[in-house]
Amino acid sequence: MSAAPIVSLTSVKRSFEEGGRRRDVLAGIDLEIGAKQMIALVGPSGCGKTTLLSIVGALDAGFDGSAHLLGQDLAALDDDARSRLRATELGFVFQAFCLLDHLTVRQNVEVPLWLLDDGPDADTAAKRASEMLERVGLGGREGQSVMQLSGGERQRVAIARAMINRPKLLLADEPTGNLDTETGARIFGLFDAMRAEEGCAVLVATHDAAMAERADRVLRFEQGRVVSQ
Ligand SMILES: Nc1ncnc2c1ncn2[C@@H]1O[C@H](COP(=O)(O)OP(=O)(O)OP(=O)(O)O)[C@@H](O)[C@H]1O
Ligand SMILES: [Mg+2]
Question: Which of 41, 43, 59, 105 is 20 to 30 Å from 222 by CA-CA measure?
């Protein structure tokens, strides 16, 4: 087993140009995440949580500083290598879910398997999708259109999709934002199980105090810096 941490960030900075002016959103973030760890990012709206998840998730390469994911230097990877890394090693629950509306519940959950070069056959993919849907409390809803689902149901489809490729790192942006307390607790339980069973690490942005409480470490962001952990 590799001794390299799952995530290692040193002095990560991200700015955006707005009307010719530069705005520093992340002003120097250091972070290390080991296997099975869960780290929560908390802080006010607009403080940079999604921005950091996008960098760690190899979606945004426009940062300064050093970011390593599973021992690979993210700044040194080209687009193809970043896509491969995302497809094989990462699961992402987007803040806006990003489901494919023309597909069924099961097809949405299967999408990450379709992106793999050596993905499972159709029957195995369908079985794995059903297992994941069962675990998020949506067993039996496979054939439904995702357009017919409630917000919390859509969120759980997004969670099932993010976990189906058994990622080494799960990046989850407000994964319990639309869920009632009981369903949220079921999702915490699922994250814990993935950590124990697969050694999956979790980086979660959340406004949910109950979720943050379950984390090994909580990073509080303010004005682009970690103000407490
Ligand atoms: N591509 C972009 N171009 C310009 N500004 C951006 C871009 N992405 C993010 N920002 C800005 O960076 C800041 C941080 O955004 P981010 O989405 O990371 O916040 P957040 O902490 O996730 O907030 P929330 O809790 O509301 O989801 C915001 O002010 C946003 O406008
Ligand atoms: Mg956000």
Answer: 59
